[in-house]
């Protein structure tokens, strides 16, 4: 049985926060809101509880989880060392949508890190998330609360439809403000390495610690046989049931292309003001990368609800937060891109 707890206010809904925290402390699974996407949490120090996350999602065992904390002091027990650059990034961006990878301590079970000697940690800015973690008294391992391979849930109803019956409790709360998952950066390499782009951009990070590198897998498909630094980036991800194809072109070419390729079940995934003549779902305006990030995953789910079979998607700009939007869309498309 899955309970649903409504939590919209950290001060008023304290009873529900305590209920959720008790479940986590006692080894159960709780879906909770964060500023990026809804997460599927378990006590990170309890191997059994963490294995249940993999079962509930149908997630491959070799894909490690992010550990969520409510206070910077929680970092010490999880890590062997905290590089100075990481301290600077934590001061600037925590709480917030930045995940940093450290050398892990013995307290972090290998099921969390999928056998790696590193651990990914983030302190969410969503106050409900932090209150639940704080109240539970344990660090909380949490992937996005979708079935493995589906788009990440940015609204309660998405998380509910994927996780009802698979977890102990689901928190009903507001839609996620950011809409794409956190930026992931490895702090264990010589030069910090950006593994997954997010709202906190490469230049946001570089303005604090100087030059960083971007992993090739962010914008290209890993070749057969190459080992992923961040295992999550190698899977076909975020996919609706429809086949998605990115079409690289300008607005007028896209309007023409979609009209020419229209048949039953074909949809366009386009920007707010594109003058599209076929059935379409829109994901923000062309020059607003934050709006695109917030909309993308719910737009992908909407396409499924509408019964789309083939989706032609307009490509976002790839600078700023656009890089995160492009990275997710590229995976939803299984790297299928047509250049006109
Ligand atoms: O915004 C987010 O980060 C959301 C919310 C719930 O916090 N969580 C999330 O988790 O997106 P998940 O599991 O869907 O994605 C975690 C990513 C994966 O790509 C995984 O491979 C990578 O982080 N990762 C985790 N631990 C790692 C490690 N030790 N080394 C390299 N990559 C790691
Ligand atoms: Mg995920």
Task: Describe the 3D structure.
With 340 residues, this protein is an alpha/beta fold. Helices cover 31% and strands 19% of the residues. The chain has eleven helices and 16 strands. It has helices at 14-25, 47-57, 75-78, 84-93, 110-113, 127-136, 156-163, 202-209, 251-260, 289-305, 322-332; strands at residues 3-6, 30-32, 39-43, 66-68, 98-103, 118-122, 140-141, 169-172, 183-186, 193-196, 213-214, 243-248, 266-270, 280-282, 310-314, 337-339. It has an eleven-stranded mixed β-sheet with strand order 1-8-2-3-7-4-6-5-9-10-11, with helices on both faces. Strands 14-13-15-12-16 form a five-stranded parallel β-sheet, with helices on both faces. Helix 8 (202-209) links the parallel strand 10 (193-196) and strand 11 (213-214). Helix 1 crosses helix 6 (127-136) and helix 10 (289-305) packs parallel to helix 11. The radius of gyration is 20 Å and the shape is globular. The model has no long low-confidence stretch (mean pLDDT 95). Bound molecules: threonylcarbamoyladenylate and magnesium ion (MG).
Separation, N- and C-terminal Cα atoms: 51 Å
Q: Give the total of beta strands.
A: 16
Shape: globular
SS summary, helix count: 11
Overall pLDDT metric:
95
Low-confidence stretches: none
Helical proportion, percent range: 25-40%
Strand order of the largest sheet: 1-8-2-3-7-4-6-5-9-10-11
Round the Cα radius of gyration to an integer and report it.
Answer: 20 Å
Largest sheet: 11 strands, mixed
Structure, briefly:
By secondary structure, this protein is α/β, with parallel strands linked by helices. 31% of the residues lie in helices and 19% in strands. It has an 11-stranded mixed sheet, with helices on both faces. A 5-stranded parallel sheet has the order 14-13-15-12-16, with helices on both faces.
């Amino acid at each position: 049985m899955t309970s649903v707890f409504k939590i919209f206010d950290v001060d008023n809904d304290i009873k529900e926060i305590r209920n959720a925290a008790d479940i986590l402390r006692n080894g159960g699974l709780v879906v909770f809101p964060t500023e990026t996407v809804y997460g599927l949490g378990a006590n990170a120090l309890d191997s059994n509880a963490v294995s249940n996350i993999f079962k509930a999602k149908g997630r491959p065992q070799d894909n490690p989880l992010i550990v969520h904390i409510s206070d910077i002091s929680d970092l010490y027990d999880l890590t062997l060392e905290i590089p100075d650059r990481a301290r600077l990034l934590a001061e600037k961006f925590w709480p917030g949508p930045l995940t940093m990878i450290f050398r892990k301590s013995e307290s972090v079970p290998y099921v969390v890190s999928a056998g790696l000697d590193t651990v990914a940690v983030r302190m969410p800015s969503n106050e409900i998330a932090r209150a639940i973690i704080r109240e539970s008294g344990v660090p909380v391992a949490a992937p996005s609360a979708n079935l493995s391979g589906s788009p990440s849930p940015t609204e309660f109803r998405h998380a509910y439809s994927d996780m009802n019956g698979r977890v102990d409790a689901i928190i009903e709360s507001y839609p996620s403000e950011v809409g794409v998952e956190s930026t992931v950066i490895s702090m264990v390499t010589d030069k910090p390495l950006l593994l997954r782009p997010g709202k906190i951009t490469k230049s946001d990070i570089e303005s604090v610690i100087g030059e960083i590198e971007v992993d090739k897998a962010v914008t290209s498909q890993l070749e057969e046989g190459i080992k992923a630094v961040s295992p999550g980036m190698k899977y076909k991800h975020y996919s609706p049931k429809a086949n998605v194809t990115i079409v690289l072109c300008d607005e007028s070419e896209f309007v023409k292309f979609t009209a020419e390729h229209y048949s039953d079940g074909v949809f366009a995934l386009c920007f707010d003001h594109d003058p599209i003549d076929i059935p379409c779902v829109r994901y923000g305006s062309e020059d607003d990368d934050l709006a695109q990030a917030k909309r993308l995953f719910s737009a992908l789910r909407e396409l499924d609800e509408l019964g789309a079979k083939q989706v032609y998607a307009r490509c976002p700009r790839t600078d700023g937060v656009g890089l995160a939007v492009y990275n997710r869309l590229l995976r939803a498309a299984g790297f299928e891109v047509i250049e006109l």
